[in-house]
Amino acid sequence: MQQTTDRARELLPTVVITVLSMIQALALELYWTRFRESDYLWQSGWEAALGWVQLAVMLLGILQIWLFYVSLVLRFSWMPTMEDTLAPFIIGLLEFAMIDLMGSDDLGAWFLMLAAVFAVSIGASHLVFRRARRDPLNDYFFSNMAAATWRDYLSSLMVVALLIMVGSGLWLSGHAGAFALAGLLFALAALSYQLVLIHRYWLVMPPSATSLDNVNE
Description:
The chain has one domain. The protein is mostly helical. Keywords: Membrane, Transmembrane, Transmembrane helix.
């Protein structure tokens, strides 16, 4: 049994990175195809402005998912479960849906998909860090860190709630203007902040509890 457990831990990084790299490669291919087909980006007006910011948000999201999972499997050791192998596929499906919905006509549904990506990522990271804390090999990181409480997830939940509110408002109103641009800029700022936290994480500085990296769980 111990041999099986050790083998699972040893192979997990290879399996996760292989699966995720294929999913993200497909997402980038779809992203590029969608970009080439979006003639409205080269025109003036709200639609073009919204389109460029939406493209930036989508690209940052794809890059962040990749960096987040790579940092996880390279930094920690844990006994994998079925959820660990399913999460990349769920996130990938949501990414494909977001790419398909890109454009001003479906911004409401697109924001709801973005909120779902945040929520799934938060849940996946929470489960991984809980299991990683139990592994003695990770004591170097968790030994001086208290366990997280629900308050550590408030900022994460607020981001998800705001994205749902923006998506629902756009879906019900059917209009894409200044409100949609404000929502996209908020999403861009949230993702940019997450990239800053991941950078801190790579510098071996345990980041404070936030949306995608509540490492003290």
